[in-house]
Amino acid sequence: MTVSGTAPLLEGTSHPALLSLDSIEKWYGGTPALSGVSFDCRPGEIHALIGENGSGKSTLLKVASGEIRPDAGSISVEGRSVRFHQPSDAIRAGVALIAQEVPLVASLTVAENISLGALPARRLVVDWKSCRKRARASLALLGEKELDVTRDVNMLTADTRQLVAIARALARGQRILLLDEPTSSLSLGQANRLFAVLRELRHQGIAIAYVTQRLAELEQIADRVTVIRDGRAVATMNSRDASPGDIAELMVGRPLGQSSGATGGARKDSTDPLLHVEDLRMPPALRRASLTVFPGEVVGIAGLEGSGASELLAALAGVGTEPRGKVLLRGVPLPLNSVRAAMARGVGFLPRDRRLEALVPMLSVAENMHLSELSSLWPPFVGLRRRRREATTLARRFSIRMPGIEAPAAALSGGNQQKLVMARVLARDPSLLLLSEPTRGVDIGAKIDIFRAVRDYAHGEKAAVVYSSEFKDLIEWCDRIVVLYRGHTVGAYVAGSLDEEDLIHLAGGAAAVAVGGDVDRGGS
Amino acid sequence: MGASPQVDADVIVRRDPIGWLKRGRRYVGPGGALIGIVIVFSSLHPFFIHGQNITNILTSNSDLMLVAAGMTFAMIGGGFDLSVGSVMEGTGVLLAGLLAIGVPQLLAIVIAVLCAGLFGALVNGFLIGYARLNFLVVTLGTMTAVEGLVYVVTNGNTLSLSKWHVIAAVGTAKALGVDVPIWFMIGAVVIAGVCLRFTRVGRAIYAVGGNREAARIAGIRVGLITMLTYGAAGLFAGMAGVVDAGRLAAASPTVGATINLIAGAAVLLGGTSFSGGEGGIFGTILGVLLIGALENGLGVVGVSDFWSNVVTGIVLIVAVGLDQFQKSRTRKRFTRQSTELGVDVGVGKLGSAAGTLQPVEAAVETPFGPRPADG
Which one, out of A189, A442, B166, B362, has a CA that is 20 to 30 A from the CA of B193? Predict the structure, then answer.
């Protein structure tokens, strides 16, 4: 067991690293995102980088792929020092980033995508035959011989697109692959297929950096693991030497508390549930989710990227795409296909992406607060004076800082924009409040304000359901926590009985692995 | 402070002067250009600012103003209506038909205009708002089809309406000393302005144009609102058709030839953005007057009519280009800040510590400065 606080170099294979990042630092404003992180990847090795949201792993990946420039530290490829000014420099040096959303040209064929930017040509005329040949050859390296390279990419599933992106990297002669949470949008079977491909590539001497949040994947795929926390690489170890418990402890950064492992959750049998969800599905992300919420409760939803947590809330709010399942609000079925019907039944929804889904940036603060009022077009006039008065009151109640009530919403800081959306949702006095990532990109002060407002709101007949990728906050502010893994509810737990580590385990698929990959229905 | 007694003066400004100024700034470009044109042409030829010529400018552009008012709805809602010219012609022909079968003149006018509005709402609006087809495709299609229909019905001939005195009066009479087309124009502009600025429907149009998804999630009936914007575009085009039928005392199959694009240019010149959610009727008025004055002024100083389109086109690109330039500078400021804040989820909690928020607040121009951080 080699765990230490200073990222020890391991004596392992004698190969020099293909890619090595040394003492990388990156600052945003006055805050360090990365402080002296070193990470390397040898040929024929899968080196996993694991850390919580906001730990700095995405930033490190961006540095390695040339998307952002580090403030200090050095990068070397095959022992030679390099400097990436833009992503194309990294690509030329042989580093391929396989992002979560694979950037392929969906309307072109697989073969064209694999040769993109370097189509083989004879005197200005594209040589399609050798283009297809090259595509087949690089797909064969992945053990993928079935795929028809003349198909359009938009006909392919997410996992096959990933393979095409990897094949493109190989066709370009890139020997370093950076994979950013590649399984987050894949099903279990698809993920296993990807793992088989990665093992095959490892065999061929490719260096693979594998970024993940899922503990359970480490022992399946990783040779080495580096744990990153608060912008520091806290440990690097051989994955067979490390237990999931050790890694979770390193991710959280606190000494191991006694794991309570409590299940079940608080049942308030005396009262009727406010919300009862049974077997809710919304493929592909949400497969089978069940959930019960009692009046007066704040229920947290914990899940990693791709767990279906944000889709669960969207489905309940009526903004999902064709969800199916049984949802009862106060014992009466809730239609899942209409935002307006959900609103009329007292469901308030704070969407996950405030810029894309919640705000009209050029309209004023007052208008944005008033937006849901426009769901009814009667009476015909807005009543500017009343709107201004109500917006003023709301702005005070939620202590929103702004240049003025008529200033455009775009002029507010992230935290204040989020409070604005909260104010809009709460002003309608919903009995069930659904919040999807309410504290994303929000400063600490606003975060506390927002959770406090949720806590205060969930009283009497009202309740709230919060999805957050910051487990610490869920434990601190919720009564119960429901964990989702790959679209299935793993279980419901009393918040006080869990610590962050438990949640990392559960959300990372620990419970699922324990029951052999098939997830038990859970819920309450 | 009236209704809200305990308002912190430093947080909330009752009649927020910044907001007003900012909104006003949008009109500096087209307003300045209009003043410039007036100064140049009146110094070249004093007849340009003669009362008779000004009336002339207004009446000859009353149809453009009406069409542009309707186009403003479509464009704020994030779309465009290519079919307005054809609808105009169609309304004239429909009017001629209704009169021919003996419908009373005033009633015929009302029916023809309502039909134009219903066509806009139920055909363009339905296909775009509910069937979710692309607005350029739909209105290009209806433009072509209605134009064709007009030619089928008229055989390409102009239908004379000179024997109907009420129709002629719409185009040529005066009321209270002002030409009737100008009254139409004023009425339309006031109705459109009030509707866009003060009614729920109007504000919902801004919301849908500004961020369709946010509007939908907030519970706004996005399909209905979209339908209404094309209904307005059709309705105003119908009114323009009636005005032109009156001015010419005829239903002509060619009156609307290029008015769709000129109206779009006028709306754009007035600061309404092509991507929706921004702009307003006041800008459209400036845009129409700008184009009208330019065209008339070139005629007055003796330049060929054909040049006016050349100049209009150049002015449009310069004006919109300058606006874009200014906006991209502002946007850059905001994006830079939001990258510092968010840096995706990756550095969420690191990058968004309270400290980095400071520059955002400071960047917003406010006479009061950022409010001190709460304790």
Answer: B166
CB contact under 8 A, A413 and B217: no
**How many CB pairs below 8 Å do chains A and B form together?**
223
Give the residue from A342, A320, A261 showing the smallest Cα distance to A514.
Answer: A261
Phi/psi-derived region of residue B344, left when phi > 0, alpha when psi is between -120 and 50, beta in every other case: left
Contacts of B277 in chain A (CB under 8 A): 360, 362-363
Alpha-carbon span A474 to A452, nearest angstrom: 12
Q: Contacts of residue A56 in chain B, CB cutoff 8 Å?
A: 346-347, 350
Among candidate residues A310, A342, A320, the one with its CA nearest the CA of residue A465: A310
The top-level CATH class assigned to A275-514 is: alpha beta
Q: Which value, in Å, is the radius of gyration of the alpha carbons in chain B? A: 24
Give contacts of A384 with chain B, Cβ < 8 Å. Answer: 198
Q: Mutate which of A360, A367, A439 to disrupt the B interface (most B C-beta within 10 Å)?
A: A360
Which among B218, B344, B347 has CB closest to A371? B218
User: What's the pLDDT at B358?
Assistant: 32
Contact yes or no for A377 and B201 at CB 8 A: yes
Q: Do A56 and B370 touch (CB under 8 A)?
A: no
**B27-329 CATH fold:** ABC transporter involved in vitamin B12 uptake, BtuC (1.10.3470)
Across-strand partners of A31? Answer: A28
pLDDT score at A519: 39
| Chain A 363-422, residues with CB within 8 Å of chain B CB atoms | 363-364, 367, 370-382, 384-385, 388-389, 392-393, 395-396, 399, 401-408, 410-411, 413-415
For chain B, the domains span: 27-329, 342-375
- The reply to whether A275-514 shares the fold of A19-94+175-253 is yes
Compute the nearest-CA separation of A23 from chain B (Å).
18
| Residue pLDDT, tens place only, B168-215 | 999 888 889 899 999 999 999 999 999 999 999 999 999 999 999 999
Chain A 448-487, residues with CB within 8 Å of chain B CB atoms = 469-470
Cα–Cα distance between A465 and A237 in angstroms, integer? Answer: 38
Which superfamily does CATH assign the domain made up of A19-94+175-253 to?
Answer: P-loop containing nucleotide triphosphate hydrolases (3.40.50.300)
Considering only A48-52, A74-78, B84-88, which range has the smallest mean pLDDT? A48-52
- Indicate the domain borders of chain A: 19-94+175-253, 105-174, 275-514
CA A487 to chain centre: 13
Which residues on chain B are in Cβ contact (under 8 Å) with A406?
Answer: 13, 16, 18-20
Burial class from Cβ neighbours inside 10 Å (0-12, 13-18, 19+) for residue A284 reads middle
DSSP summary character for residue B9: T
**What is the average per-residue pLDDT within B223-244?**
97
Residue B191, Cβ neighbours under 10 Å: how many? 15
Half-sphere exposure of B46 (CA within 13 A, CB side): 0
Q: How confident is the model at residue B353 (pLDDT cuts 50, 70, 90)?
A: very low
Query: Mutation test of the interface with chain A: which of B4, B7, B12, choosing the one with the most A Cβ atoms within 10 A?
Result: B12
Give pTM, 2 decimals: 0.82
- Chain B residues closer than 8 Å to A410 by CB: 334
Which structure tokens are listed for A310?
């944000």
Collect all residues with Cβ–Cβ distance below 8 Å to B110 and sequence separation of at least 6. none
What values do phi and psi take at A81, rounded to 5? -70, 135
**Token pair for residue B123?**
């055909």
B265-276 tens-digit pLDDT: 999 999 898 889
Q: Phi-psi region for residue A124, left (φ > 0), alpha (ψ -120 to 50) or beta?
A: left
Q: Which amino acid is at A279?
A: D
CB proximity list for A265: less than 8 A, separation 6 or greater = A480, A491, A492, A493, A494, A524
